[in-house]
Fold this sequence. Notes:
This protein has helices spanning about 15-25, 25-35, 125-140; strands at about 5-15, 40-45, 55-60, 65-75, 80-85, 95-105, 105-115.
Amino acid sequence: MADPLKLVVSRQFDAAPEAVFDAWFDAESIAQWLFATPGGVMEHIAITPRVGGGFEVFERRGDQVAMHFGTFVDLDRPRRLAFDFRTERDGQATRVSVDFEAREGGCFVTLTHEMDAKWAAYGERTRAGWTGILEGLARALAD
C-alpha cells in the first residue's frame, strides 16, 4: 500500500492498561462495544487471541448482517495490539493498531487505522466509527 491514509483516534480510559487491553479479547465485553450499533443484535463472536489468530464479529442490523474479520499480527500485552481488518472474509485488509499507555491513573489509547488512499472519501466516517467504538469500550469498562 503506497502512501496509506492514516486515521488516528485517541482516548483516555479510567482503567489500567491491562484491563483495557484484555477487553479486546473478552467476547462478553466485545458484544457491548466492538462494531455494536443501536438496535443491532450480535449473532456471532469468535476470538483466537494469538498472533495468526483473529476475531469474527457478526451483528444483525435489520435484514443485513454486518461481518467484521481481523487477523492478529502483533500482540504485546498490555502495550500494543494490531490486526489486519476486513469486512469480507476474503476481502482486502487494512491495518489497525492500538497502542496502550499508562497515563494519569488510567490508560491512554491511540488507535491508528491505515488504509489505501483510494478510500479517503470514507475517512471521516471511519474515524467517527472508531471514536464511537472507543466510547463504547469506555462505557463497558465503567460497568
